[in-house]
């Protein structure tokens, strides 16, 4: 009981949203009837929906509600060809957790496209043959990783085709023909699942990127300036630049003037946005997160709270002028930003400044921001204050070393910015968030997908990533140092991606001591021994217990107040032969035949937590023991047909960059680089 109260206090900022049943928008939940009537109200001509009335319920057996599709819950809306116009109330649609398909095609809707991208569980969206106009936001597809069919044909939509398209990893049909899309096709590899694409009869230009070659030429017809190959017989740009030098110089001058004007505008904005003129990147005092002593960002709503922030200080603005220069040893320097990994292309401070930014949260060693750049790449930017242990040269070396790491279970650093008092660390943004968030914060589809086979694969992925770090950062005493579920991000296929490793030599000793979980190991706490790679093994043991029990470990909280002491519980469960009570009930029933494997994993975890460092196994040994369990789990589930395939397989389209040694289970049909999200686990990390 006491534990529950402490936890409640820790989660206080989220309590109103997470526990009192309010909807994400803060409004009280609506009944299905009320939500549908509110949707109807947003239409201007709803005479075709006279059957929608309070008298009956939409999903009753003998419901008369037109166009409402129910399978238990409301799953679809088929409102094609009804002469509807006006708005489409997305907030009303957000009330339906089960909604998977909407058809508004062949109506008279006009104006900018409503924010359908907020309905992230949708599998099909039919909007053909209306009069929608305006552009799609560039991050339109970022969270639509369940979307299979999108029909937008026959509207008046303008702007470019969003490069975030690569994130729609389930997309099969994309129809954008007969609109006013302009610009070039995004230079991405389209999702491998995409089999039907049509962008014909728009105003596209440029050359069709190689990734789109598999589609029929009729998919591209009717775009006068779109070329299949760069040829001389057809202009591939609407307004060809003449090879006249003086004209070029004039246009360069214009570009320079625009950039200058932009910089002035940004500086002005920075000035007016804050009272303190030096820094605007941190707006902590406004953040609800920081009102808690120990920020445990696991509240279900924390990811939805977004703030617009001005990301960079005036000082960095002024240094953006510097010409990007290449330097093969330290990476590419673009302004203040040093690129250490080019998998996501080269970008500079200016790109980050122009990005739509959002606060994700703050944890042990800094605050994290999400920045969606206009080139479609979305990154997580971590701002760290206490990384001032080493000189710039050493810092540069460490960063380029971290940027060179390549492993399917490692999320490498992309870029960094060094300033004396503060560092910015940029990595890819991973939409699903951290294991901590999915396990304890979010009770949605992702949590449901964390069944037993998936958790075993996560355990294996984390173990493999750790072995890689212990091998490739062998000069470090503490290769990771802060392994915990908040620093394990989940790729779309639930493969774990480790973040925030290798920071120990960079942090001031007091900050490291404060923020890093390895310092909570018994060798350090009880015997005062130095932390080392076996301390990483200890942290891994806690993650295993967390995966097995589904409970929040008290070890993540300062002074162990709150959460469940999983170590004590696990040891008791084993000594009293009551292991079954330890396992998360959400998978235990369904996977009963795997109970012996669950017990084996529990024993591995307890061995990792062995207080005597000498007796504690190393990462390699732990990993090979886990591999054996995984093999057995796979065998058991094959024999026990009812258990179904682990969710991991259904998202197999996702592949990490430079992953040569892919785990065997991944189908690996793709090289789609954009379909990978990035790091925001630190977000929910705990000091
Ligand atoms: C309203 O919808 C009906 C069909 O449902 C259609 O016949 C009528 O023309 C529409 N009215 C307007 C003003 O669009
Ligand atoms: C459905 O219709 C039957 C008669 O056809 C009626 O008895 C029953 O009450 C109706 N159910 C609902 C929920 O309206
Ligand atoms: C319908 O949805 C609600 C929440 O949206 C859920 O609690 C309930 O179990 C669902 N019912 C069915 C039959 O799917
Ligand atoms: C579009 O809707 C109208 C009624 O509003 C219908 O007559 C027509 O057949 C529909 N067209 C298509 C292509 O479905
Ligand atoms: C694309 O749409 C155009 C216009 O509707 C059509 O002529 C063409 O056949 C379509 N191509 C494909 C591959 O769907």
Automatic annotation (TrEMBL):
Keyword annotations of the record: Leucine-rich repeat, Membrane, Repeat, Signal, Transmembrane, Transmembrane helix
Cellular compartments per GO CC: membrane
UniProt feature coiled coil, ranges: none
Leader sequence segment: 1-20
Membrane spanning residue stretches: 249-270
MF (Gene Ontology): ATP binding; protein kinase activity
Biased composition (Polar residues): 666-687
Subcellular location: Membrane
Descriptive protein name: Protein kinase domain-containing protein
Positions of region (Disordered): 637-687
Protein kinase domain segment(s): 354-630
């Amino acid at each position: 009981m006491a534990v529950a109260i402490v936890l409640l206090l820790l989660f206080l900022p989220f309590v109103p949203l997470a526990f009192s049943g309010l909807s994400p928008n803060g409004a009280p939940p609506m009944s299905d009837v009320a939500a549908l009537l509110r949707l109807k109200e947003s239409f201007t001509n709803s005479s075709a929906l006279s059957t929608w009335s309070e008298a009956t319920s939409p999903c009753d057996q003998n419901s008369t509600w037109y166009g409402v599709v129910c399978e238990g819950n409301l799953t679809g809306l088929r409102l094609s060809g009804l002469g509807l116009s006006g708005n489409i109330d997305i907030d009303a649609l957000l009330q339906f957790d089960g909604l998977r398909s909407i058809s508004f095609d062949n109506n008279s809707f006009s104006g900018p496209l409503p924010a359908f991208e907020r309905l992230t569980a949708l599998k099909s969206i039919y909007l053909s043959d209306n009069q929608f106009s305006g552009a799609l936001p560039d991050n339109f597809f970022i969270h639509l990783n369940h979307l299979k069919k999108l029909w937008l044909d026959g509207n008046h939509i303008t702007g470019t085709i969003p490069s975030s398209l690569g994130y729609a990893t389930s997309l099969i049909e994309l129809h954008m023909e007969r609109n006013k899309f302009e610009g070039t096709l995004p230079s991405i590899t389209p999702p491998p699942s995409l089999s039907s694409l049509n962008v014909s009869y728009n105003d596209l230009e440029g050359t069709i990127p190689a990734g789109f070659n598999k589609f029929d030429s009729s998919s591209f017809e009717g775009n006068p300036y779109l070329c299949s190959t760069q040829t001389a017989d057809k202009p591939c740009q609407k307004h060809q630049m003449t090879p006249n030098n003086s004209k070029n110089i004039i246009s360069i001058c214009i570009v320079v003037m625009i950039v200058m004007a932009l910089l002035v505008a940004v500086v002005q904005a920075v000035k007016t946005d804050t009272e303190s003129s030096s820094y605007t990147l941190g707006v902590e005092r406004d953040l609800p997160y920081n009102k808690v002593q120990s920020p445990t960002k696991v509240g279900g709503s924390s990811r939805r709270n977004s703030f617009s922030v001005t990301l960079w200080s005036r000082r960095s603005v002024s240094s953006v002028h510097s010409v990007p220069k290449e330097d093969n040893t330290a990476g590419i320097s673009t302004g203040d930003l040093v690129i250490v990994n080019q998998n996501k292309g080269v970008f500079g401070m200016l790109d980050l400044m122009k990005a739509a930014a959002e606060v994700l949260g703050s944890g042990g060693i800094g605050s994290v921001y999400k920045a969606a750049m206009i080139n479609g790449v979305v990154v997580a930017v971590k701002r760290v204050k206490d990384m001032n242990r080493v000189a710039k040269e050493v810092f540069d070396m460490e960063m380029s070393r971290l940027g060179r790491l390549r492993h399917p279970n490692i999320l490498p650093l992309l870029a960094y910015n060094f300033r004396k008092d503060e560092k910015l660390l940029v990595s890819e943004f991973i939409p699903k968030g951290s294991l901590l968030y999915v396990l304890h914060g979010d009770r949605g589809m992702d949590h449901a997908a964390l069944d037993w086979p998936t958790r075993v694969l996560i355990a294996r992925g984390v173990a493999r990533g750790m072995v890689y770090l212990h091998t490739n950062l062998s000069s470090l005493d503490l290769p990771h140092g802060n392994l915990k579920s908040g620093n394990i991000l989940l790729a779309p296929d639930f493969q774990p991606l480790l973040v925030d490793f290798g920071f120990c030599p960079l942090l001031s000793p007091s900050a490291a001591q404060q923020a890093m979980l390895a310092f909570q190991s018994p060798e350090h706490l009880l015997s005062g021994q130095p932390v080392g790679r076996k301390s990483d093994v200890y942290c891994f043991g806690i993650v295993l217990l967390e995966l097995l029990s589904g409970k929040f470990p008290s070890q993540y909280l300062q002074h162990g107040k709150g959460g469940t002491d999983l170590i004590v519980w696990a040891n008791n469960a084993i000594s009293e032969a009551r292991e079954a009570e330890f396992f998360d009930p959400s998978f235990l029933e369904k996977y009963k035949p795997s109970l012996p494997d669950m017990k084996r994993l529990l024993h591995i975890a307890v061995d990792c937590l062995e207080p005597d460092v000498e007796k504690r196994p190393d990462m390699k040994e732990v990993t090979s023991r886990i591999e054996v369990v995984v093999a057995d789990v796979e065998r058991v589930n094959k024999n026990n047909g009812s258990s179904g395939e682990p969710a991991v397989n259904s998202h197999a389209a996702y592949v990490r960059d430079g992953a040569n040694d892919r785990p065997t289970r991944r189908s690996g049909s793709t090289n789609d680089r954009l379909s990978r999200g990035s790091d925001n686990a630190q977000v929910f990390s705990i000091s």
